[in-house]
Amino acid sequence: MTDTHAQHGLGYDETLLVPAASNVLPHLVDLKTKLGALELANPLAGAPLNPAADAKEVILAIAQSGGLGLVPATEKIEDQAAQVVAIKGTAVDLAVSPQTLTAADETYAVGAEVWLTADVQDRVAALVEAGVSAVFLYLNDDVTEEVAAAIKAVKDQLQNAVLAVGTLEDPAAAEKVLALGADAVIAGRSVHSAWPDDIHYPFLTTVMGLAEVATPLNKAVIAQGGIHYSGDVVKALAGGADLVMVSDYLAKEEVPADAVFQIDGGLRAGMGYTGSHTVVDLKEKAQFVQITDNGLKESHPHDVEITKKAPNYVEQERD
Questions:
Q1: Contact 175, 181 (CB under 8 A)
Q2: Domains, the chain, ranges and CATH?
Q3: What does the record give under GO molecular function (predicted)?
Q4: Which residue among 155, 181, 263, 269 is buried most deeply as judged by most CB within 10 Å?
């Protein structure tokens, strides 16, 4: 992992990965990653954001690829727990999805998104009973003493489930959260961020900063936000992430499995491009170079008429 970011920080679209001599074929790439004790065959995670979509279909599309599908928080605790039960109750067909890694009970691994609210412990208790594999705990404040106590209490509830906490951008805050027992930190624009929006936010630099704290502790980093192309998934992993959230992709696609397939293919191609057989190789070998906005435009298709956009390619508007 090479730290070449400028002082102001860099987003994914402000960098390119340097190609390397490679005999790594995309179909032979090993995408395995770990989130605490949870092993995954694919470093993709996501939750259904489109209310018109079939939530179960979206979550299963990620789970069947070997990644971690997430059940979003619902108003009623019992509704979210019921969705976890439904995913866990879906038969695992390894003949159809041979890359799927399952939980210890041979069911799909499934996570749940939770906000740190007054009923958080009741919600977590219900999710644990439902068999949740991971809890993504989102904070609505800085890591104060009160928030720290709540994080520790949630961790104590989880038994064998994994705890990820975010969204964080300050390495010092991430270090504090990891010391409380969290297995992973979610890197992205924090609730009180000085950056007003995501458009120019330095997502890559944020991932790098949190990885510098988490990696020596054998903890994980989850990249959230700023992912517009499948190539950005490669950059996030190269920057130190262990898991990348792709919820925004899935919200735009009618067939979630097709989108996941396209992102998976782009990730494999990018790893072959950099000569990386594993995610760990990618972190250790990848080299970044900074580019300008004009360089970004030149690096993508231009002066051509696009009749149908691929699921792993989402246009981004920048000022």
A1: no
A2: 12-299 (3.20.20.70)
A3: IMP dehydrogenase activity
A4: 263
